Amino acid sequence: MTATAERTTALRIRDLGDLVVEENGQTRTVPTGTLSTALALLAVHAGRRVGSDTLADAIWGDRTTSRSSSTLDSHVLRLRRVLEPERRSGQASTTVVNERGGYRLITRPDQVDSLRFARLATEAAALLGQGASERVLRRTEEALRMWRGRPYGTAADAPWAAAAVARLDELHHQVRETHIGALLDTGDVARALVELESAIADHPLRERLWAYRITAYQAAGRRADALHTYSEARTVLIDELGLEPGPELRRLHAALLAEDTAAPPARSRPRREPVSRPGALHLPTVRTPILGREAEAAELGHLVAGHPLVTVVGTAGCGKTRLALEVAARAAPTFTDGVWFVDLTSATPDRVPDLVSSTLGLPTPGPADIAGMLRDRRTLVVLDNCEHVLDAVAELVDRILATGGESAVLATSREPLEVPGERLRPLAPLAPGPALALFSERVAATGSEQADRESAARIVEAVDGLPLALELAAGRARLFTLAEIATQVRADASGLSHTGRRAPAHHRSLRGAIDSSYRALPEAEAALHRALGVVPGPFTADLAAALAQHDDVADLLGGLVHRSMLTAVGAHGGASRFTQLATLRSHAQHRSAALGEDHAPRRDAWVEALVDRQPPFGSTALRNWHRELDRNLPALRATLQRTLVDAPSARGVRIAGRLAVYWTFGAGAIEGLHWARTARAVCEEDPHLGNPADRALTALVLGSNLMAQGHHEPGRETLQEGIRAAAGLSTDADLVTAALTLATGPAFMAGDTGLVAELAAATRSLGAGRPELDVLVRHAGFIAPFLTGEDPDMLVRVVDLHRDATAAGNHYTGWVAAVSAVQLLLPAGRFDEALSWVRQAVTDCTAMGMTENFLVAELLADCLALSGDMAAASRALAIAEAQHVRGGMRWPTLEVTENLLDRVVGSVGRDGMERARTRLPGHSLADL
């Protein structure tokens, strides 16, 4: 070996953290600034030429000074001195060489930590799939020792480094998960739990980590801790993503509840021991790494090892083929007679046996011949893209399974084969993190150096992380900026297409890929698919029925879910919901437009009818009404947008004016203020829009919102306008009286006695001669004397009002009376009575479905603190603070709370308060 070769071999670039050069056990730190930037860029492209312009842009950005080629050469010369301090003057560099108007870093993969890390990650994942856990641990431990911080040091935040950093970050997450999985496989539960503690703290949204912790606790015999872990995971996922746990976590939870012995994650069946030699691989060459699918690949690998038929089902472009190829390649050691891939994209039903026979090399075609050949062998056959030849594939697979041999079939399809013994593995689009990493890598592969992370995230969101859509969007980076691409996909998510010649026919355009599924739908299902395009999010079957105008909507929804044209997102408040992916929704809208269909009026009419079904003010029936609105919130928002912004109408004003209680006490105060302002602006622009009651309601809703969020003067003026509009109304008197009563709350909080008196007078005028409005009139009437303190019998008065309100089924007035009693009892030192009344207020609020009430939460905290229960007070304060922040309110609202905060913090400590904020199961009234 020459001296040059020996020197090159000894050199190592440590780029997983601050940039360091290591040689013969000695380390040299690369100076930050120009040299570290240059080395980082060369390391990202190790072994490949980096153009001088690209290197100059990375070093100087938009600065125009010092960009001459001689200046760049001098910086490269300084970098060479860092890499090769012993190189003599005039001697050729062995590390950074000039090449065709650029520079190339000459290294072997093992000399650059980032490249070595990626290789170890890939090897470890493959070995884990083979059950070689000890070998996995050696590789993951080596990889994790190399990780010293954010890759590329100070260059990590540079735009050109974003894609590489995102990819390495994702690989780091995967290595940690693989490492923990190997620890569990080897029985080192204690160490796995230690590793999981920090991993979950760093990445609480990765479901695989929670699944590993459940498995570890169960293996340690700590079933209660395992159950608590599931509860923690579910809370985090719902709070942060609005999603229920995935199938793996639900399976583990079900096993725990059944006191079953759950298997480790993705180890649902006993593994076959790998044989000593792998079978021959007959798979298409894959040149790109799989990203974001490690959990699915591991789970599928174990399913394939233990079941004769596994089908991966999912929508067009979700990555079924790529995942199947990965799983098949990893499974090769188990299948001693080979792994075969059959692409059925262009097959017709009568040609399926011929195509499979010719791929397997059989001299004669036919299902019986294929089944006979596989009966005595251990072979894996991958049948890709089965959806358009389902019956033929199902017949063939049924024959194969009937022989009872050891061969297995891994199928990909947009709907199940429905063969007895089939194990389904639904495949969803990528989660945001892996999707962003995939998109960034594909953008970099086009030669583009764009790194607009914000626009990239918008693109990922707009296409729901669908891999095919990400690939096609990345292809546009050669022509457009990422910001332009984001605008394009938001306008038409299904309009992406491949611009070259070599894409598979069924992947040349996203709309074409979806069309192949759409054309196979029965007409009724196709019509529902198109109609659902007007709902930009989850919806219930009731709304689907209104859009479909069809009796058998359940069957139609089931058919679309079965064919991966619709996603069931689980129950919400007791009712199942469904949603279209953004790409499918865009396709539905495109098809509807081509046919001249407009489904928005039907959606808007259904939403209006739902809003009009508002139960009596303060009744327990409000709970179900609120839930129905929650379940169809995307449709409600779309209707408000269309009827108040796109095409302002009386319908929009009517809907906005009837949602005061829903927005105010359902964690939507800020959004409610937005729609109230919009509706008010529409009424001002067109004085004849909406009937008098709707216009009055609009003003009252907006005024209440403004005052509640501290905008006293504009709120007061708007409420007074609403009071004038309400005078003499003969229709909807109950709704307007309720709105007037509701407005007394924020007027009371502002201490505006005069405004409270005006609101009370307006309720008396509307309620005259209407016994059913008596409680509301009394409610509005006691607020002013309560503020002034002029009534010595006020406590008796509010207690009587609470009794009569609850007897009339008005829990809204009930909770107001209850907290009024609390505020009278606390100054008198009657803390136990006050605590009893505030708990009654919580009961009244939850009875009618309120999820938010910042005043009740705050008063409960005060009562608990004054009663001496500081730990409970800290938890209630955390909930109250969260509700104030969400509603845009000043925190704290009450002077007594201000005085008690220091006492509570002094008792539980600042750490105790922080734990109360972060460890609550939720921040709603139900959590009180």
TrEMBL record:
Region span, Disordered: 260-281
InterPro entries (UniProt xref): AfsR-DnrI-RedD_regulator, BTAD, OmpR/PhoB-type_DNA-bd, P-loop_NTPase, Sig_transdc_resp-reg_C-effctor, TPR-like_helical_dom_sf, WH-like_DNA-bd_sf
PROSITE patterns: OMPR_PHOB (PS51755)
Protein origin, superkingdom: Bacteria
Residue span(s) of domain OmpR/PhoB-type: 3-107
Keywords, in A-Z order: DNA-binding, Transcription, Transcription regulation
Keyword Transcription regulation part of the UniProt annotation: yes
Alphabetized Gene3D superfamilies for the sequence: P-loop containing nucleotide triphosphate hydrolases, Tetratricopeptide repeat domain, Winged helix-like DNA-binding domain superfamily/Winged helix DNA-binding domain
DNA-binding positions: 3-107
Protein name: BTAD domain-containing putative transcriptional regulator
Organism of provenance: Actinomycetospora aurantiaca
